[in-house]
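A common beginner's mistake is to predict each chain separately and then try to dock the pieces by hand. The better habit, illustrated here, is to supply every component at once so that their relative placement is modeled jointly.
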Amino acid sequence: MKPRVRFAPSPTGYLHIGGARTALFNWLYARRNGGTFVLRIEDTDLERSTPESVKAILDGLKWLGIDWDEGPEVGGPFPPYFQTQRLASYKKHAEQLLAQGKAYRCYCTKEELDARRSEGGLGWKYDGKCRERKDTPNLPAVIRFKMPHGDGSYSFDDHVLGRITKTFSDLDDFVMMRADGIPLYNFGCVVDDHEMEITLVGRGQEHVNSTFPQLALYDALGWKPPTFAHFPLILGPDREKLSKRKHPEADVMLHKKNGILPEALLNFVIRLGWGHGDDEFIPVEQMKQWFGFENVGKTSGVWNPEKLVWLNQQYLKKLPIEDIAQRVTPFVPGVAAGDPRIAKLVGAFRERTKSLGEMGEKMAGYFKHGVTIDAEAAAKHLTPDGKGVLAKARDALTPLGTWNAAAIDEAVKKLAETSGLKMGAIAQPLRVAVTGTTTSPGIGETLELLGREEALSRIATALK
RNA sequence: GGCCCCAUCGUCUAGCGGUCUAGGACAUUGCCCUUUCACGGCAAGAACACGAGUUCGAAUCUCGUUGGGGUCACCA
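With all components supplied together, the output reads:
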């Protein structure tokens, strides 16, 4: 049987890094095994769910290149894919459980519950006050699941964690549905996973405990539960679960803004909790061949920005120049898409920068007229001696027939020979004059990139 | 605190009873290359949490301790 897996985010904000990885793992599993990847929006938290968040999540997934076979925008055989549009179904199953005595109406108010909970302290479980209640007052009531009592337990064989068990006594009568008919997570999730014929639920480890009430539900409804895979969490630098509140890097799109390539983000994120021997550079096509739960680790991983950025540079270096050129353009202020100079600049800067943002910043100077010269650099290289060398260099360069890196380098080299100077003694004053800093690509390359007119003009300005 | 999960270099990890004086990668340091900066190459330091078992033999299996994380909502 072909597996059917899903990613079921709650639209209460942007696409979270943890969610992105959960989506990635499920998506790869589906792709690797010829299965189906379903996207379902769990928007039952009416207070916090917004259409903007739905869009943000969809946009995030698209940016990452994670496509879904069923779900919003594409439809599928089990619509709708928004939980708030499936209320009739939850109602039907809730009433069935009610009729069978497997669930009951609870009239305890939020306030009463809070009071009893604070009295009971941490770990307080619902006391069953309404469990055996026979009357049916005309009051708002939530529906609670009647958890079995006794010595039994629920267990399941997790694809990554192995067998996990929990006894009935550690579970309580959780609420399945609010008084207004909106289901809560555990209930909505079970009904939908069953109706959408999900065969395997892959999600973060923060959900292992919620697997038990869900198993109880499958049991009560007489349904065969899917299998489960719980993935290790991604931790922030403080070693706590990466959260939107405390960790800005949890926002997938923030990385886009910073000039991280989706390829690199995917590669980085998959290595947090999954590996394939000693491989580090793993393009998506390769992931699709290799990914499996056998190699998903059990231990949480800490977010490591240095490694992300290193991977990003690996992709910057390996992707086609034209491709990078197109993607870096938005990061270069005032440059129109398709400017042919961008591609040449990419060739020079892809090995010197780690993100599109950084690359764009460095490129910007090549599109302006004139430069601001760094005082420290000037003090070191534009000394009277340095200016003397600079003037000689100008004289050697001005008559050049072809203005390209090879010709320029040759001219500089010749000047070094005839004047008895070291290459550096010539290149550095030139570099400072022309870029304002002591660092740049090779001097010939730099001058070519600038263009004859601009380069000579900058030299002239520095000489004044 | 109850319950659940986890435990190899600073970080991500390889390791699935002997091939481990524990391998790779990021980061760090040094050297080489070199017109600067990068890239690249080479090298170094850096880990099996602890304690009992099981076994001829344990990083690998069992138990305990300690440590870390998760979860205990009419959020998901």
